[in-house]
From TrEMBL:
SUPFAM superfamilies: RCC1/BLIP-II. It comes from the Eukaryota. The lineage of its organism: Eukaryota, Metamonada, Carpediemonas-like organisms, Carpediemonas. InterPro entries: RCC1/BLIP-II (IPR009091). This is Uncharacterized protein.
Length: 362
């Protein structure tokens, strides 16, 4: 072993023998250090001498003996590795948390309270956006504590999983006075924090997401089991009206028979194919599908016509010429929308300052 591995082996052996002593004698192992001594040891015991010393210990109580045997194993075979483990032919990795793939390790640690924001970026961005909102800053500090960062350093696999998730994952943050929303997604698992509703990063209870569309604090995920929406739906932009924060909810299309029929015809784990694109702006949601475009939200009557009172908040087909199935959408902040099918376009919404070129500004 190199010097670093030797040091680690000594440290782990020391911990194992302390626990073995406590198990056998049912008391804490007394310290053998002389606190009054100013002499610094010139050498440390070799691994061979430690092993010889441990071998002289008589049999112990079973649980204590198991710990002592573990200490001997560390000295002879080295400490267990969490990564880059060489396996013999036919040998398999042990069933343990550190042998899971990095996505599962990352999700387990976040679910257990680990803080993935080692550089405090969530707080810094919130402070840049709203420097005077001290109460919100404190809620972020309480949710993402410095102590919870330590979990990533329990072994190399944990820290590796965090680094890969930071590199390959996706994150989103929106801050407005009084509230900060943040989410981080890796390998389809999404954890979110809304300082008005969550005390910690919280797993989004939905199938693993393939893609997430966001606008301010309204979000839609495309998953193999269909579309799921959460956040703000105060204008019905998720296909229903609700006050406050909405937990992840399966989106349905009872007022869009063609879309509902097409989704039902897809295999159980391929419902994501019902969507070709999603656009969200200014409390409006447009969903493009292979059988037409549907929308819900603010000023819906501009795009779907006058709907019955009970259906005004449901996703409803956009009124377009027969046979017109858009494959692209341009959606402006002022509710101007251009739907394209090849080289054909349909335009609706607000013609602010005549920018739609229709000869009027309505």
């Amino acid at each position: 072993m190199n010097s670093l591995c030797c040091d680690r082996a000594r440290e782990r052996t020391h911990r194992a023998t302390i626990h073995a002593y406590s198990r056998h004698f049912r008391e804490q192992m007394p310290s053998i250090h002389n606190n009054k001594s100013t002499v610094t040891p010139t050498s440390v015991p070799s691994l061979e001498s430690l092993l010889a010393t441990l071998s002289k210990i008589p049999p112990l109580e079973p649980t204590a003996q198991a710990l002592l045997d573990r200490a001997r194993s560390i000295l002879t075979s080295g400490p267990p590795l969490s990564m880059n483990v060489e396996l013999a032919d036919g040998e398999e990795l042990p069933i343990a948390m550190h042998t899971l793939n990095q996505g599962a390790v990352w999700a387990c640690l976040l679910g257990g309270g680990a803080n993935p924001d080692l550089e405090d970026r969530v707080l810094e961005e919130a402070r840049e956006e709203e420097p005077d909102d001290i109460e919100m800053h404190n809620r972020i500090r309480k949710a993402l504590t410095p102590e919870a960062k330590c979990l990533w350093f329990l072994c190399r696999k944990f820290f590796f999983s965090l680094n890969v998730a930071e590199k390959d994952g996706e994150s989103y943050q929106y801050t407005v006075y009084g509230d900060c929303y943040h989410h981080h997604m890796y390998m389809g698992r999404l954890f979110m924090l809304d300082t008005d509703y969550h005390a910690a990063l919280t797993r989004a209870r939905m199938p693993r997401a393939l893609e997430v569309y966001s606008n301010e604090i309204t979000h839609i995920a495309r998953t193999p089991k269909g579309l799921w929406g959460w956040g703000d739906s105060g204008y019905g932009q998720l296909g229903f009206k609700s006050s406050g924060f909405v937990d992840p909810t399966r989106l349905t299309f009872p007022n869009c028979p063609k879309v509902a029929e097409h989704e039902a015809s897809l295999p159980p784990w391929e419902k994501h194919r019902v969507v070709t694109d999603v656009s969200m702006e200014r409390w409006q949601t447009f969903i493009l599908t292979p059988v037409g475009t549907v929308m819900a939200g603010n000023k819906a009557n501009w795009f779907i016509g006058e709907a019955e009172r009970g259906n005004r908040r449901l996703f409803t087909p956009v009124a377009v010429p027969t046979g017109f199935v858009p494959d692209h959408i341009m959606h402006a902040w002022n509710s101007a929308v251009i739907l394209s099918m090849g080289d054909r376009q349909v335009i609706s919404g607000e013609s602010w300052k005549g920018r739609l070129g229709l000869g009027h500004v309505e």
